[in-house]
Amino acid sequence: MEKQEIRTFGRRHGKKLSARQQTLVDELLPTLKPQDGDILEIGFGAGEHVRNLALANPNKIIIGAEPFMNGVASLLSAITDEKTNQVFDEYKNIRIWADDVRDFLRNTDSKFKQIWVLHPDPWPKARHEKRRLLSADFLNTLSKYLSSDGEIIIGTDHWEYFDWILEQIKETNLSATIPDMEIIQTRYQNKNKAGTTAPKYLVLHN
Ligand SMILES: C[S@@+](CC[C@H](N)C(=O)[O-])C[C@H]1O[C@@H](n2cnc3c(N)ncnc32)[C@H](O)[C@@H]1O
C-alpha cells in the first residue's frame, strides 16, 4: 500500500459560499484546471498575489494551488465580472488547482520560472512540525520543477519557521539567497499572527 502523505493544510471549507461564488466554483473552476504553466504559487490564500503575478506577467501562464475552497472562491470572484461571470481579460492567464499542490505536481511536466510560497502554514506546535510544507523532501521535489534559471521564492513572517527552512535547505542541493525585497501584502501577512516586524524572504536556485 502507498504511504499516505501527511496533510499540510488546515480546513478545506469555511463559511458557506455566496450563490455567485458557488456558481463560479461549479461552472468556471473546471475550465481553469491547469496543465502546464510558467509560474506557480502554492497556497495562495485569497489570491491577491496570484492576481498581481497575472498582471505583471501577461504572457505567462500563472498557476495557483490552494485547497481552501473559500480562498479559491475569493480569487474566482475577484477575477470575474460580477454581471457576466466572465474572466476579465487581464486575468485570462490564471489557472487554478483547487487542491493539494503535490497532486498537481505528480501530473505535470512543467518547468517553472518561479515558484512562490508566501506565508506557508507555520504549524508552530512541536507535535505538528511534520505538517510543515517546506521540508527538505518537498524542496527537493520542487527543485525538479524549476527551469534552468528558475527560482523558488519563499516569504514568511514566522521567523522560527524561516530558520527551520534554512536548516532544511542544507539537506538539498538548492542554494539560497536572502534578498531585501518587499511585495504586496497578502491577507495572511496583514494578520501577522507571529507578531514579527516584517516578513523574511528567501530565494532558492538549483
Ligand atoms: C497561512 S496561509 C497563507 C495564504 C496566502 N499565501 C497569504 O499569504 O495570505 C497558507 C495556505 O497554504 C495552503 N496550503 C497548505 N498546504 C498546501 C498544499 N499542500 N498545497 C496547496 N496549498 C497548501 C493552505 O490551505 C493555506 O491557505
Describe this structure in words.
By secondary structure, this protein is α/β, with parallel strands linked by helices. It has a single domain (19-205), classed as Rossmann fold (3-Layer(aba) Sandwich). Helices cover 28% and strands 19% of the residues. Strands 3-2-1-4-5-7-6 form a seven-stranded mixed beta sheet, sandwiched between helices. The model has no long low-confidence stretch (mean pLDDT 95). S-adenosylmethionine binds at residues 8-9, 42-45, 65-68, 71, 100-102, 118-121, 133, 186-189.
Provide a brief overview of the structure:
This protein has one domain: Rossmann fold, CATH 3.40.50. Helix content is 28%, strand content 19%. It is built from seven helices and seven strands.
Form type: globular
In order across it, which strands form the biggest sheet?
Answer: 3-2-1-4-5-7-6
Question: Please, how many helices?
Answer: 7
Helical content stands at 25-40%
Radius of gyration: 17 Å
Tell me the strand percentage band: 15-25%
Largest sheet: 7 strands, mixed
CATH architecture annotation name: 3-Layer(aba) Sandwich
Number of DSSP-assigned strands: 7
How many structural domains?
A: 1
CATH superfamily: Vaccinia Virus protein VP39
Parts with pLDDT < 50 across at least 5 consecutive residues? none
Q: Which structural class is indicated by helix and strand composition? A: alpha/beta
Oligomer: single chain
* CATH topology name: Rossmann fold
SSE ordering: HEHEHEHEHEHEHE
> Briefly, what CATH class?
Alpha Beta
Which ions and ligands are bound to the chains? Answer: S-adenosylmethionine
Query: Terminal Cα separation, in Å?
Result: 33 Å
Mean pLDDT: 95
